[in-house]
Design brief:
The protein is built from 7 helices and 8 strands. The protein is of the alpha+beta class. The chain has 2 domains: about 60 residues, Arc Repressor Mutant, subunit A; about 140 residues, Chorismate lyase-like (Chorismate lyase, 3-Layer(aba) Sandwich). A 6-stranded antiparallel sheet has the order 3-4-5-8-7-6, with helices on one face. The chain has a two-stranded antiparallel ribbon with strand order 1-2. Helix 1 crosses helix 3. The radius of gyration is 22 Å and the shape is elongated.
Length: about 230
């Protein structure tokens, strides 16, 4: 005979059921410990233990003083070492493919120190074949970067190539908005033209203020969300 579940196990099972059923979506805030305790007729200590169990299983994340947030299928991405590593850290099997690499004499970004640029266009695809992102990176054609159109990226990584070229980001700025896909982007992403995608435009510079990378990412909102905690 199986032993009856402990109270905190009943609470964690209840919350997990809501998550997997889609009643709690990625990024949604859970009720407070007090609200859960009153709703389920248990102590706050029991709720705290249940949340701890869910946290260990990467179903929720608890931010002290900021509530608990669902992270199922929406784990936080730390892209300081590149998107490929950030995505792999979530356990996702995502394939990165290069669409095109070309040299540019002029670019829609200011950088007095650069005489030439290299544009790298890549897509990321799920095992199902769904393309979830289209990224266009613009970097100064210096050192190993200048050879990328002929030799490709070092170890297939833009981050590794930038590091070998001595291009190290010290600061930058980022914009987030939503755009309708133009016909060219829609074709690459295999979506209807006019489909809404999240767009992140990010510019990073080195300690002297010279350009390191200007990247525009089109992200499928079914798989990516922008989250601000305050």
């Amino acid at each position: 005979m199986s032993q009856p579940k402990l109270k905190h196990e009943i609470v964690s099972s209840h919350i997990e059921t809501l998550i997997r059923a889609g009643e709690l979506s990625p990024g949604d805030a859970l009720p407070s410990e007090q609200e859960l305790a009153e709703e389920l007729d248990v102590s706050r200590g029991t709720v705290r233990k249940a949340l701890s169990d869910l946290q260990l299983r990467n179903l929720v994340r608890t931010d002290r003083g900021r509530g608990s947030f669902v992270t199922f299928h929406n784990r936080r991405l730390d892209d300081r070492k590149g998107w490929a590593e950030a995505l792999s850290s979530t356990g996702s099997e995502i394939v990165t493919s290069t669409v095109s690499i070309r040299r540019l004499k002029e670019a829609a970004v200011e950088d007095p120190s650069a005489q030439e640029f290299v544009e790298i266009v890549r897509i990321r695809t799920l095992p199902s074949g769904t393309v979830i992102s289209l990224e266009t990176s613009l970097v100064p054609a210096v050192g190993p970067v200048a050879k990328v159109p002929d030799n490709g990226l070092i170890d297939g990584s833009l981050t590794a190539t930038l590091e070998c070229a001595g291009l190290c980001a010290e600061h930058g700025e980022q914009w987030v908005d939503v755009v309708a896909l133009d016909p060219q982007a829609a074709h690459t992403l295999r979506r209807p033209a006019g489909c809404s995608f999240m767009r992140i435009t990010r510019t990073t510079k080195d300690a002297e203020g010279n350009l390191v990378e200007h990247v525009t990412s089109l992200l499928d909102p079914d798989h990516f969300r922008f989250r601000h905690v305050f």
